[in-house]
Design a protein that fits this description.
about 15% helix, alpha/beta, 4-stranded mixed β-sheet, about 180 residues, 3 helices
């Protein structure tokens, strides 16, 4: 399960007309801890922002899943309510889940949310949807290739079969019959 963190970054931004102004932007980062979220944010911001910036706030997000889309310019935060049954008390219980959807407008966000939630088999209601303050999302992608091992460990490679072991039932001292 992914853990999302909302990270607020402050920096000086140059407008299109050349004026400088201080801005505060929120980014959504997939990380395993607050420290990891900070490190990943610094890494991403160094690629995006020229000049100084500082991380103003990091908090765990209540977002369960994101639905990214290439053509989505804005991020919409949606709340859905699932009705479950509490087996101990025997009563219905409402559970809220939050999703982030990339879209150009509200209608498109709602459609993409419905498409994204088509896998849910229990009935749910979309109870709220609003334009989010999140500027960008940085999911965690594991790099392909072998993991680097610490210097004191050695990778174990599978043993290769010798030609005599490849023949079923053959032993090195077995002689073919003549």
């Amino acid at each position: 399960m992914q853990t999302w963190f909302e990270v607020k970054v402050k920096y000086v931004k140059v407008d299109q007309d050349g004026r400088e102004r201080k801005v505060s932007e929120v980014y959504l980062i997939d990380a395993v801890s607050f420290t990891d979220a900070e490190a990943r944010t610094i890494e991403q911001m160094q690629q995006i922002i020229r000049g100084e910036f500082h991380i103003d706030n990091i908090k765990k997000s209540n977002i369960v899943e994101i639905f990214p889309h290439d053509s989505g310019e804005y991020w919409y935060k949606a709340r859905i309510t699932l009705v479950t049954i509490d087996e101990k008390a025997g009563k219905e219980k409402k559970v809220n889940n939050y999703f982030l959807v990339a879209a150009d407008d509200f209608k498109e966000a709602y459609q993409r949310l419905e498409e994204g939630l088509s896998y849910i088999l229990v009935p749910y209601q979309t109870t709220a949807m609003s334009l989010s303050t999140i500027v960008d999302v940085f999911p965690y992608f594991k790099e392909e290739g072998p993991e680097e091992l610490p210097p004191h460990l050695k990778r174990i490679e599978p043993e290769e079969e010798t030609p005599t072991e490849a023949v079923a039932g053959a032993k090195p001292d077995d002689q073919p019959e003549q």
